[in-house]
Amino acid sequence: MPGQNKDDGGWKKFLWDSEKKEFMGRTGGSWLKIFLFYVIFYGCLAGIFIGTIQVLLLTLSDYKPTWQDRVAPPGLTHSPKADKAELSFNMNEVETYLTFTKRMRDFLEAYNEERQKDQMQFEDCGDEPVGYRERGDLESDIGVRKACRFSRSWLGPCSGIEDRHFGFSEGKPCLIVKLNRIVNFRPRVPSSNDSIPEGARHKVLNNVIPIHCTSKKEEDADKVGEVRYFGVGAGFPLQYYPYYGKLLHPQYLQPLVGIQFFNLTQNQEIRLECKVYGDNIEYNDKDRYQGRFEIKITVNNS
C-alpha cells in the first residue's frame, strides 16, 4: 500500500532489532536483570516451601499418629465377607458356600501355628484374658515389638481345623470376627451393665471386651436359636492391646472370635446384628461397621 515501508522489519524486527541490539524491545542487560529477579524470587518461594515441609516433618513421628482426637472407635468386621452383607447358601450344595469357606481359610492362614514359631517375633500371652501387654513407649528405642500368639484351635469348631466347611455343610455357619487395628488404642472393659443387653450381661468379665449377636428385628428373635462364641474369653482379650503399628508391630495378630449359629430357622432370611461393648467403643448409624455389624443369613436345605 502507498506510504508503507516494506523494509520496517515488522514482527521480525520486534523479536530482534540488530541496529539497537534489542531482543523483544529490551537489551541483553535488561533481560539478564529480569532473569536474575525471577531466579531469586522463585528460589525464595521454593526455599520457604521446603522449609515449611521440613518443619512439619519434624512434628511428625514414624511410629505415633500425631492427631488421634478425631479417630473413630474401631470397626467390627467379619469373615467371610459377602456382597451386600448377605450370606445365603444351601447346606446340601457345596458349591453355594465354597467361596465363603475358602475366604475363611485364607484369612486364617496367618494364624497357623507354624507361622508363629519364631521366638524373636512372637511370645505366649496366655489363653485366658489378662491386662494390657505394654511394650514400652512408641518413641522408645526398643525397636520392633513381639506379637502375642493366637492359636486357631481356640476358635473351636470355627477354626477350620477339624471342619473345613466351618459348619456350613450342617446348616450351622460360623463367622470369624475381629476388631480393626488402631495404633496405641486400648479398649476399655464396660464399667457397668447399664448399656448392655440383658442377654449379654453375663459376658462382662475382667480383661475382655464382650461381643454379642442377636436378631435385628424383634419378630426374628425366636428364629436365631443358640449362638456360641469361641476364643480367648469368648471376646477380645486386653493382652493383645495396644497395637504399635506396622513398623514396630509387623507380626501383630488381632484376637479373633468365632461365632457359630447352631439352629437358625432354615429357608428364611434372618437379619442379625453383632456388637462389642466397652466404655470407649461407640456406634454410628452412618457407619454400619463402627463397633458393630449387621448381616443377613439364609440357610436353605432344599
UniProtKB/TrEMBL annotation:
| Main location class | membrane
Q: Which GO terms of the cellular component aspect does the record hold?
A: sodium:potassium-exchanging ATPase complex
Q: What InterPro entries does this protein map onto? A: Na/K_ATPase_sub_beta (IPR000402), Na/K_ATPase_sub_beta_sf (IPR038702)
Transmembrane stretches in the record are: 34-60
Recite the UniProt keywords alphabetically.
Cell membrane, Disulfide bond, Glycoprotein, Ion transport, Membrane, Potassium, Potassium transport, Signal-anchor, Sodium, Sodium transport, Sodium/potassium transport, Transmembrane, Transmembrane helix, Transport
Q: Which domain of life is it from?
A: Eukaryota
Repeat recorded as keyword: no
One GO biological process term is: sodium ion export across plasma membrane
Q: What does this protein do?
A: This is the non-catalytic component of the active enzyme, which catalyzes the hydrolysis of ATP coupled with the exchange of Na(+) and K(+) ions across the plasma membrane. The beta subunit regulates, through assembly of alpha/beta heterodimers, the number of sodium pumps transported to the plasma membrane.
Q: What is this protein called?
A: Sodium/potassium-transporting ATPase subunit beta
Q: Which organism is it from?
A: Denticeps clupeoides (denticle herring)
